[in-house]
Amino acid sequence: MLWVVPLLAAATVWSFSEVLSDECVVDADDEEEEVQPLGSHAGTGLCWSVASSTGAKLNGEQATVLCALAMVPCVLTLHFSTPHEIWDVPSAAWWMCVVGGSLWAVASLCLFKAFETAPSTVLIPLTQLTAVMVLVPSTAVGLVSRFYPSITYLYVETGAFLTFRETVAYVMLFIGGMLPATKGKLSEFSKLSFWFQPHVLYITVHNFCFAFIDEILELVTGPVHGLLPDQYTLISSAGSLMTFCCVFAFVPRLRKQAVRLPSQVGRQFALMGFVAEVLNWTAFWLASYAYQYHLGNVSIVTATEVALGQLVNLVVAVWLRMQFGLGRSDAVADLPTKALSFLLVCSGVVVAILPVPVPTTTAHLALPAEVALPNFTQTQL
């Protein structure tokens, strides 16, 4: 149950990041909005709106540039606040972290491109599909663990597949998360036109990347590799920065958008995007602890993560829109469907965190014979 706490903290931070991204990333359907007083219920005279701001909003490529820039102070802060031994990890785990970071960079670019054609209240529910896609790598790892237990001890001891209770929670979380994206009509998923919408295509690639990121994260922080969440976050962030540099160096369109950013984008939107990405990185760092605390199939953690993200995003988006006029107008649309989604997600999370009886014997905690433990001498102890 402890693994839910960092997920809830991460979901709260992510929700503010997503609403800020709503506000600073250009929407294909953006129109001049009437200026609404910020905090009109509190009697203030401030305002947030497209009409009251100067300069253009960020496009997907420019938002990705800010994502890379925001990672630099975050990585430096984590580096200098932890022992330098944090970089000292086995080579296999190191490369797994780097791959995870590279996938995170690709996922970020796809997410920002999706923001160009859809708001967070539509995109975040669609990230529920990550919980479906993660079944592919998690099941594959579970099958491999039967032959190579020294590599994937976690799955041998705790089970590679969902239990009945986790399956029930999984279905409730998935349906609850999907309702807002289809406006309560789940039959939309059977239509080919739904899947070929630009934001759906982008978010599908994003989800596919995160399915493997989540699997890598649980593997490297498990009993065999034993990395700390801080280690994974730091090394994977370095991998993300390297990927960002390579992509923008060799793709002319992305490089052109990066050069245009200082002169084309309004300062308030650039600052908002930078803050959103610092929050995004912080949320990912918080969520990484959940994968260390949870033992078992990673898909239930992923499902809970995206469900809590959708749940908190809805509450924060509605509150910020109604109180301050911040965000997009559809955040307060179709509330009955979103209320039903709220109930389903809450119920699914409760089922997911129900306590499981733990055997009193410690025999089940023994490592497989194939896992070689270091030999300590008396002087080392």
Draw up the topology in text.
Blueprint: H1 4-24, E1 37-38, E2 46-47, H2 60-80, H3 91-115, H4 120-126, H5 129-133, H6 135-145, H7 153-158, H8 164-178, H9 192-195, H10 198-220, H11 229-250, H12 252-264, H13 267-293, H14 298-324, H15 335-352
Antiparallel strand pairs: 1-2
Helix pairs in contact: 1-13, 1-14, 2-3, 2-11, 2-13, 3-10, 3-11, 4-14, 8-14, 8-15, 11-12, 11-13, 14-15
Written overview of the protein:
- The chain is mostly helical and 381 residues long.
- The chain is 64% helix and 1% strand.
- It contains 15 helices and 2 strands.
- The chain has helices at 4-24, 60-80, 91-115, 120-126, 129-133, 135-145, 153-158, 164-178, 192-195, 198-220, 229-250, 252-264, 267-293, 298-324, 335-352; strands at 37-38, 46-47.
- A two-stranded antiparallel sheet has the order 1-2.
- Helix 11 (229-250) packs across helix 12 (252-264).
- The longest helix has 27 residues, at 267-293.
- Mean pLDDT is 74; it is low at 31-52, 151-160 and 358-381.
Give me a quick take on this structure.
By secondary structure, the chain is mainly α.
Considering DSSP H and I runs of 4 or more, what fraction of the residues is helical? 55-70%
Please outline the major beta sheet. 2 strands, antiparallel
Series of H and E elements: HEEHHHHHHHHHHHHHH
In order across it, which strands form the biggest sheet?
1-2
Tell me, rounded to a whole number, the average pLDDT.
74
User: What sort of overall outline do the alpha carbons produce when their principal axes are compared?
Assistant: globular
Would you count the extended β strands for me?
Answer: 2
- CA radius of gyration: 22 Å
Pick out the low-confidence regions: 31-52, 151-160, 358-381
Structural class: mainly alpha
Per DSSP, the total helix count is: 15
